[in-house]
Every structure is written in C-alpha cells, then in structure tokens.
Specification:
The complex is a heterodimer of chains A (154) and B (562). Chain A is mainly β. Chain A has a domain at 25-131: Cupredoxins -  blue copper proteins (Immunoglobulin-like). Chain A is 8% helix and 36% strand. In chain A, the strands form three sheets. In chain A, strands 1-4-10-9 form a four-stranded mixed β-sheet. In chain A, strand 2 (38-39) and strand 3 form a beta hairpin. Chain B has 562 residues and is mainly beta. Classes of the chains: A mainly beta (154), B mainly beta (562).
Chain lengths: 154, 562
C-alpha cells in the first residue's frame, strides 16, 4: 500500500480516524488542521485556536509562527464540555481554564525555531486528541550559526 | 447562543502550586569565592565542588561508623506535562549547587529550581520552553547550573544560554548560542571563571563543529569562541583531509564542564568524538582536536596545548569527561583522565606531557596504548556491512560521569563500565540535523558488569575495587569522613569505605542513578544530595536496563537529628 501526503485528510475520514469513537476511541494524534499566526505592523503575532463541538481537537491543531518572540493566542471553547490549556512559554507554561462556551487569551513567548506542545490536560483530553503543536519557523540568528559553509539539509 | 464566558488571561502554571516565588538572598558568590571554595565546605559552589574537579568535600560529619544511620531528610520530585524532547529518555543528570542553605539544580527539558536545602521546599522554578523536536543524541538531560554574580546560569536543549535572577528565577538575559537546525544543543553545566560563564557545545552525533564559548556574566555578550575542529590553514588542520568537507562536520564537542587551574589560567576541556562517529574513511588523519584534552587560555580562548587520547577515533570514544587536577608528592602539577577507551592518563598539566598511561578496565580489544603513549588500533569496523565487536563499547570504560579524588587517601575513585558493542559500518551522506554515525551500533545486552576502582594516580596501582552486577553509570563523591558515595543503575545509593571499598550503607532510591551527588551542610548538619532518574543514553551505556523504571526524584540524606 502506498500513500501520499495530499490525500491524508481523505484517508483519515475513510479510516474513521477524523472524529471521536469511530474506528479508534479518540482521534488520530496530530490529525487537525494547519493554521498560521498573523503578524501586525508592530511585529506582534496573534492567532486563534478553538475547540469545535464534540471534536476533541484544536482547530487549528498545528499553528505556525513566522518567527520566535511574543504572541497573543486567543482560545475559544465551542464544545459543550469543559477543557483547559497548558501552553508553552518561556519562564513557565501558561494555564487557562476553558469552561463550556468560553473564550480567553494567553500572552506567550517562544524561541525559534522548533515545535512546542500544547494541550488540554484535564481527564484524558490528551489521549482523545485535544493536543496541538505550535511551530516556530525561521532560522537562528546569524551570530549563533556555526562558522562553516552552508551544509546540505534533508 | 449566549456570549462566551470570559475565561480571562492564561496564568503562569506555577501560580497553581505551592512554589514560594523567591529565594533568600545569599552572600555574593564571585570568582574569588569560587577560587577558595574548598574553605567553605558547607557550600557546593561550583559544578565539581572546586575548580580542580576533585569532587571531594572536607565535611566529615558522616563517618565510617555512623554512615549506616543515614536516612532521607527530604525528597523533591518534579514530574512532567505533555510531550517533551526525548519524551521517554528524560534523566536527572545534574550536580546540585548549594549556597548558604539554598540549592540550585536543573532537570530535564529546561527546568531549573531553587530549593530550601534544609527542607526541600520549592522556592522558585523556571521552565525554558524548549521545542520538543530538537536533535538529541543522548536524551533529555541537563548536567547542572552555575551560580554567581546574583544569577543562576543554565544551558538549554535548544542551544540557548540563560541567566536567571538567583532570588526570583526571573530571566535576566538569554543568548542563542547554537543552531538547532544544524543539530546543535546544549546540555553542559556552565562554569563561572572571572567575569565569564563558560559553556561548551553538544551535537557530536549530528556532524556539528564543536566549540567552547565564554560569555559576559552580566550581559551574555560572547567574549570568545574556540572551535575544536580547525579550519584549513589553522594549527591542527593538517590532521584533516586537504580537499574535503570533513572538518566542517568534524565533531569535537564540549558537552562536559572543563576543570580550571587559576595559576596557569588554563581551562582543561575534554572534547568529543570526531564525526561521523564510526566511519573514519571520510576523514583520514588524526582529526584534531577531537578526543583530546585541550588546554584553553581562559582570557583569550587560545589553545595552549593539547593531548589526543584516541587519534582517528573509530569507536565513538569521546574524551569529554573530566580532567581532574592534582599535585604529585613532589608538587608537580598533574592532570588525571580516565578515557572512554579504557586507559587512564596522567599528564603534566603545564604542557601536556604524558606522565603515565595504563588500562583501568578489564577488557580492551579495540587497540593498545603503550606506556609511552603509542596508539595501535586493532579492531575496528572498516569494511562496509561487516559487524565488528569491540570493548569498551561506545559509552566507554567510563562515560561522562565523574571520578573523585580523596585528599586523605590520595586515591581516585573511578566509576567503571564493562560493556562491549558491535558496530557495522554503513556509510551515509551528511545532512544537517540527521544523525551522522556512519554505522549501526548495538551495545551488548549481556556479559556486562561494573565496579568502583580506587586508583593511585601516582603509581597506577588499583588499590581496591567494589564490584557490581551492573556497570557504574553515575559519578562518585569522596568526603573527609573517609567515604565514597556512588549511585547504581538499579537505584541503590551506596557509601563505601574509602580505604578498603567495603560497602557500609545503601538506600534504594527506586530508579537508577546517572548524576553527580554533592554534599553540603546547613546549621551544622551535613547532607548529601543525589538526583535520580534512569534515562539518557541508556541504549549506549547499559541497554540491558532499557526497561528499568524511570524517575525524577532528588534525594537528600542526613544523619538523624537526635
């Protein structure tokens, strides 16, 4: 059997892995949508993630930032159950409680580049699929790079 | 639908804990005080206790007679939330620093704490948000912090170096020291010298170019960088191919804290394996300054001398582990180094002259080093696809975990690993951030053991050994009470008689040891602290215990107060 990345969504739906309690008990890990943070003229980044009703996933589940730094994340719980979020942040993770139909914000600071985990940690929300990734793209500053010619990458 | 309930602003997670948020201000810790650290044994001021790397304490409240009464004074546990780097490999590898009753200690995944050294109460915590997809060869680990100038200095898995306010844990400065896209990371405990914080690189399995950095303690500005792989035209470049790219990915990382001689102004930095680890065919030559001790001028970063323990390494025999400084009976300034390759070296630390070399493990098949220091490789994987077995394995006869030197007995206590491995050369292209071993390596799952060896560095004689069913994968600690402390992979923390090796006491900590215990006193009561938690590069040093219980507890022991 061969697969391609372009038909991933269709494959998840066909396999019953794109929702709760179909083929699996929860939702396939890392199967949510991809979204991008916006960057204002002042350089501050903003983004919104929400929890759709009965989906037990973040939408988007993967959030891409153009670079490291400060950004404001808005979190919306459209579900009819209570969740929370533990969010990556330099100094200490941030925590917010999200009762049914709630909306809040988080001021976060991340280095870059790399992938950071966030999740609702109540009950078994993590196991059921309510996990996400914040991906900081870009490069480290030039002064942090090794003194050598450019090297091949995968 | 009604309006959304206002969930407000997310709050720091530690607000939902009993963390106090601040630590008492201590007396100023600066260079002069660390120079004289031996005079205040109530504190453990720097990574090795003292700049010479002896890991010896003058505290003598624990004795051969009373040590059997040692019992836990307190335990600190940290736990984890969610996905983290090397989620199944976390390990406590630090050596706790103690200043006037405040303990500063790091853990996996960018965590750092200030604890009440008497009670274990959590005074403040800092968690660096480290990406979980950084390239790590050897687990989610950090070997400790440096404390001074009112700050706590720590390196992070995503190759940052940060300074925290010692009383609040708030970040003071943060520099990006390395390139995570190139496979770099930082795991080392920083070393404070003068007004600089010294931090070496990690990433030897990813074809980086190893380096040692000095940063300004107040601002984080980089003062100097010393690459351990020379560019074409630089001294040592003649040991790399003239027309190749090998030097650009040559390894030689500095992932263990150097020792330091203040009279000579020299840092003694051990360097890691050349890259690729096993496939030497792409890097003909001795490959300086990999697998060496490099004497670095602390003010300029210039190399004054070097001694290479394994030229043209084909077995992953890093020499990053400590270079312990001591004086011969005639006052000669010496340096002792127990290498991964199974040989124990004594050098004159003023110029790198070899004084003595002898094996300290039972089984060495990779090659031979004569008493004059001549190296002859014998067994190595030089044919594509052909498995070759050798001793010691790639974790070495002694890994990074440290030996100690008793100023009472004159003996050095070496944690020894007797584990072999089979490597099969598999050449591969270099690509940034992808492991660059050039071989498949399988470390033996049986026929292993370990011991603590008490070695007289002047004569080369092994005075005693305390044998264990499993290899020794944690640092020893020697104290003036005539004791040597050692943690085992199966969780026991043991106290040995420094003169005879007799086991006098043990306590089962519930998870294996891969850290460096330290000792201190508060209000006249002596404590010994040992971070526990089996993890890190277990598949490299003891895969026979890959299934052992993990953990993340810091145990602190003392004698009963009555």
């Amino acid at each position: 059997m061969t697969t391609t990345s372009s038909d991933r969504s269709a494959q998840l739906a066909e396999a019953g892995l794109d929702a709760q309690n179909r083929t699996a008990l929860g939702r396939a890990f890392g199967s949510g949508n991809i979204g991008y943070a916006e960057e204002g003229s002042d350089g501050k980044m903003t983004a919104t993630v929400r929890i759709p009703e009965d989906a037990l996933c973040w939408d988007p589940g993967t959030l891409i930032l153009p670079h490291g730094g400060d950004f404001e994340l808005t979190l919306i719980n459209d579900d009819k159950n209570t969740h929370c979020a533990v969010l990556p942040n330099n100094g200490d993770p941030k925590f917010i409680w999200l009762v049914n139909h709630a909306k809040g914000t988080a001021d976060l600071n991340l280095d870059g580049p790399g992938t950071y985990y966030f999740a609702s940690t109540t009950g078994n929300d993590e196991g059921r699929g309510l996990t996400g990734a914040i991906i900081v793209s870009g490069e480290v500053p030039d002064e942090a790079k090794l003194d050598r010619p450019p090297q091949p990458r995968p | 639908m009604t309006d959304y309930v206002d969930a407000g602003q997310a709050i720091p997670y530690q607000q939902l804990s009993a963390v106090k948020g601040s630590a008492p201000a201590t007396g100023a810790v600066d260079y002069d005080r660390i120079l004289d650290a031996r005079s205040e044994p109530q504190n453990w001021l720097t990574y090795y206790g003292t700049y010479d790397g002896q890991r010896y304490s003058e505290l003598d409240q624990f004795t051969k007679e009373n040590v059997k009464r040692l019992s836990p004074a307190w335990v600190f546990q940290s736990g984890a939330v969610g996905m983290q780097s090397g989620a199944s490999t976390y390990s406590n590898e630090a050596s706790p620093i103690v200043v006037e009753g405040v303990m500063y200690v790091s853990g996996p995944d960018g965590k750092c704490w200030a604890l009440d050294a008497k009670t274990g109460a959590e005074l403040w915590r800092y968690k660096h948000a480290s990406p979980y997809d950084v390239s790590l060869c050897c687990g989610n680990v950090n070997r400790g912090v440096a404390v001074g100038h009112g700050k706590v200095y720590m390196a992070t898995l995503n190759a940052h170096v940060i300074a925290l306010d010692a009383t609040t844990g708030e970040k003071v400065w943060d520099v990006t020291a390395g390139d995570v896209r190139a496979g770099e990371s930082r795991t080392v405990a920083p070393l404070l010298v003068k007004d600089m914080v010294i931090v070496g690189s990690s990433g030897g399995e990813f074809g980086t170019r190893g380096c040692l950095d000095a940063f300004d303690v107040e601002t984080g500005e980089r003062r100097w960088r010393r690459y351990m792989i020379p560019k074409p035209g630089e001294p040592g470049s003649e040991t790399w191919p003239d027309d190749g790219e090998a030097w650009q990915r040559g390894g030689g990382n500095c992932w263990v804290t150097p020792t330091y001689d203040p009279e000579l102004g020299l840092l003694y930095q051990g360097t890691g394996n050349p890259a690729p680890d096993i496939d030497g065919g792409v890097r003909p030559g001795a490959n300086l300054y990999s697998d060496s001790v490099v004497a670095v001028d602390v003010d300029s970063g210039e190399i004054r001398w070097h001694y290479q323990f394994t030229p043209h390494d084909l077995w992953d025999y890093d020499s990053t582990m400590e270079n312990l400084l001591f004086e011969a009976p005639d006052g000669r300034k010496l340096l002792a180094h127990a290498d991964k390759n199974g040989y124990f070296f004594v050098l004159d630390r003023t110029d790198g002259e070899l004084v003595r070399v002898f094996p300290f493990v039972d089984r060495i098949t990779w090659g031979e080093i004569t008493a004059e220091g001549k190296v002859t490789p014998k067994v190595y994987p030089d044919e594509e696809g052909v498995p070759v077995h050798f001793w010691p394995g790639p974790a070495g006869g002694k890994e990074w975990t440290h030996m100690s030197y008793s100023r009472q007995t004159g003996l050095i206590y070496v944690p020894v690993q007797e584990v072999g491995a089979t490597a099969t050369r598999r050449r591969r292209e270099f690509k940034e951030s992808i492991p660059y071993w050039g071989a498949g390596v399988a470390v033996d799952l049986e026929d292993f053991y370990g011991y603590v060896a008490a070695i007289d560095p002047v004569s080369g004689e092994e005075k005693w050994r305390w044998r264990n069913e499993y290899p020794m994968c944690a640092s020893t600690l020697a104290t003036a009470g005539g004791l040597v402390f050692q943690g085992t992979p199966t969780g026991e923390f043991v106290a040995l008689d420094a003169d005879t090796g007799e086991k006098l006491w043990e306590f089962q900590c519930g998870s294996g040891h891969h850290s460096s215990p330290s000792t201190y006193s508060v209000d006249g009561r002596q404590y010994v602290a040992v971070p526990t938690g089996w993890g890190g590069w277990v598949e490299g040093f003891l895969p026979g215990l890959l299934g052992a219980a993990a953990g993340d507890a810091l145990f602190v022991f003392a004698l009963p107060e009555n």
